[in-house]
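Interim report, section 4.2 (structural modelling).
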Amino acid sequence: MIDIANTKINFLKSRIITFIFSFILVVLSFGTFFVSGLNFGIDFKGGTLIEIETENEIEIAGLRDNLNTLSLGDVQVQEFGSKKNLLIRVEQQSGGDQIQQNVVEIVKNSLDSYLSSEVNFRRTEVVGPKVSGELIQSGAIAILAAVFAMLIYIWFRFEWQFSLGAVVALIHDVILTIGVFSITQLEFNLPIIAAILTIVGYSMNDTVVVYDRVRENLRKHRSKNIIDLLNLSINETLSRTIVTSVTTLLALLSLFIFGGEVIKGFTFAMIWGVVVGTYSSIFVAAPLLNYLDVKREWNTTSAVDSTR
Amino acid sequence: MIYFSNTKILSILLVIFIALMFAVPNFFSKDQLNSFPSFIPKQQVNLGLDLQGGSHLLLEVDTVEIVKERLENLNSDVRRVLKKNNIQYSNFKNTDDNLKFVVEEFPAEIQKEILEISVSNSQNILQMGDQTNLVITRDENQVSISFTDEFIKLAVSNAVAQSLEIVRRRIDELGTREPSIQRQGSSRIIIQLPGIDDPDRIKALLGQTAKLTFQLVDTSTNYDPLNPKKAPVGSEILPSDTDDSFKYIVKKRVMVGGENLVDAQPGFDPQTNEPIVSFRFDRLGASKFGRVTQQNVGKPFAIILDDTVISAPVIREAILGGSGQISGGFDSEEANDLAILLRAGALPAPLIILEERSVGPDLGADSIEAGQYAAIIGFVAVIIFMMFVYRYFGFLADIALIINLFMVLGILSLFQATLTLPGIAGIILTIGMAVDANVLIFERVKEEIRSGSKMINAVENGYKRALSTILDANITTLIAAVILFFMASGPVRGFSITLAIGIFTSVFTAFTFTRLLISIYAKSLKPSLVGMKIND
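Predicted structure of the assembly:
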């Protein structure tokens, strides 16, 4: 039996240490982002991606050499789940959208003649320079819009102090997610943007639950020291935080392990996001309220949930 | 919060029942469904191209080309007006978006006359009323003429509408299964082709403007490979479709064009058994064709498709019947495609393929299988975990979770929303997150019990207290889903849809169905059944 009630963990005791820890991670994320950037997939970089399946195992190096003689620029070949499944990436061709279209045909012909066994073309994606530019832009706008919408919503429902704390935690999560993709050099593509948006939603969800309790306790315990009050609120919501994180992680892990190769990166981003989002609600968003001078004199008649 | 009127109970059960009815068809094959009575819904979830296999193409109408072509037409009209009025001009040239020339004098009445050409021209093609569609600007002696933004917008919009129609006709001619062809934004066309994973032929069909013209070959001179750009005035040099080394010199004047065709069919030449395309002109085309062939017997007549000479047969006798045939050394598939292109008509401007995403049927099926597998395992894991933590309440939450899943499926089927691979991921994520509302409530109930409330009051207050938290927490996720819906397209959009539906159904079930179940048992429940130690 799990009962995580009545915990009295002093989460804020080491807040300076956790702040420094978060700060180092953020700086590290920024650092690697500016040094090594992101490994953009064709969604954002343009280019051609072909997934093939063959009857026999293929020697990748030979195939790579062969494809690199086609003068299509850099051609990458990598295993995708098994030795019979390969992913071929051809970089963006200079000369516009029309030229880009010929790449598929050239590669297909070359594969058919190079490989003796039957080739099954499972997936073909071609993204031209125009579209990739737009996708990167709309992706960035979507994330900013989501963060901004959260800022407004929390401001509306709480106070500006809460809104600021929540958004700092949110930006922390987004930066760390981009950072992990920069450090691991996992492919950063369109679904990752969707994952980041979900992380924004999830992390906010977690923060809101803690904040709701903080607000309630602010009304209940008017004279309580703010640090004790924040600790109390985190502890009171701790079992919910853990149970929901675990169920979400169980579902995501199942997807990560059994859901197939195509959405692995997407699932990885979300698993990371749930972990980081949970961490930031407890160790970033809540302790920040200590420094933001939250209002103590709540008008009890307007209190939403304690009067209804 | 725990007392329900009978009407409420009934309506909760009814909503769930309806959702289940719509979810059920997804568990049967199409054949089985057909044997069901007619009152049972038969719609299944719409699978995205990434799951059923198929091809997605994003095309753009080349708008620069539209303006350029119109400027070329304008070129000769403007020159004519200038010549007629004895205006000396020099440095006359076309750029991508305007005409430029240098004049000494440029009287106002000439400007007016030029503006009028544009009015009479535009009335034929586009409904611009008697407004001019030209802007004349003059800087010292330098004059430049360009189209108004309004006119360009209208021209582009017309060209896109026309392209859409022609694209649709070309694809329909190929007999593709349920293609979806839609306009996106001002100049783009999205094509979805279920079941096609190698769209090479369609791309080739769409990549051609298919502008067919019949022009006379200029026999006054021969093509000189050493002087590859030199053509007599009024003639142009065009490549040959069959012979790369050979080029034709043809007269620029178009004798008959593809717009006068009424039909084109592939076939075989009875003598040579070579694939051909036979065509038929409308009345105007037939009379033009008759006249030209009558006057030019013995001369080669070039058949030109998109600035490439397909063939240039010698006219043996006047062709008055208005029909003819093209043979150009093509195979039967090429003949078939050419016939399709000619029947569907020429595109007003070239189409550029901006994006292609094709998924083979195997990968789609593998993705569905993997998705189902992951969903079941994730689901079982969450169910066990919830029972472990909340015991009896966990069991109730699990029942709600199952109903939740059915409701998501039911709503997807009802609205015929498209389920994609990221969409499946959204459902699986929902499995994990859907229990959150119940978790929030249960934790509240536990707290109430701990502070000394009786079970029934604890449930009552637990629901009350958790309400605003649940709403706040879910609205934030919903905001993210809505933004994603508007920003994304294709598979990722499917994710935002399932995520949003999941949020609604989980809040709904937590506040209606689970609450109903709990209220029924609340009076008899003991804290141990909620997963609490008795001595808490």
